[in-house]
Amino acid sequence: MILMGVLLSFGMAGANEKVEVGRFSAGDLSGWESKRFEGDTRYRLIDIDGLSVLKAESQASASGLYKKQRIDLFKTPYLNWRWRIMRRLSKRDELEKSGDDYVARVYVVVSGGWAFWKTRAINYVWSGNQAKGMVWPNAFAGDHAMMMALRDRRDSVAVWYRERRNVLEDLQRLFGERIRYVDAVALMTDSDNGGGQAESLYGDIYFSER
Description:
CATH topology: Jelly Rolls
Organism: Methylomarinum roseum
Protein name: DUF3047 domain-containing protein
Pfam families: DUF3047
Oligomer: single chain
Largest sheet: 7 strands, antiparallel
InterPro entries: DUF3047
């Protein structure tokens, strides 16, 4: 009976494999690097209700955080995170370069290596003017970086929302390929193109088997 209990416990522990990417609740930013596009969005860990989260504040700026981490989507295809916005951006056309700002976005990157033109990305965004569920090419990168609205202006400010996306299926649908590996995960709050201020919070980010 004891042996059976041990075997069951190992089976249950491995039943849903989890790969951590952002351990913000542990106060851990190790491995995350900054990428600056225009000005600096301020990222810092803060405590809310006794839990550490990542806060982003943008004032006409665009810089993000990214973490190089190879993820096997055949094993852990689901990307999980939670986010919350504290200040909206004014409404703008996100299909145009002048409106390519997002109060919050989490994205995955598939590196093309030396063939940089083969690099692809999916940006899961909190949209300011596109309806939830809409998909469109990035205004600057074209169809190499696809935008997907998971939240829109109908979603509340100062409320946490949990997200879970099957990245393997999303890559297949958007790029027509069954891509096994993701090479990096990034997040960004930006307001450089249209100006203004944006403020958001990000919780832990991880991949899971289901």
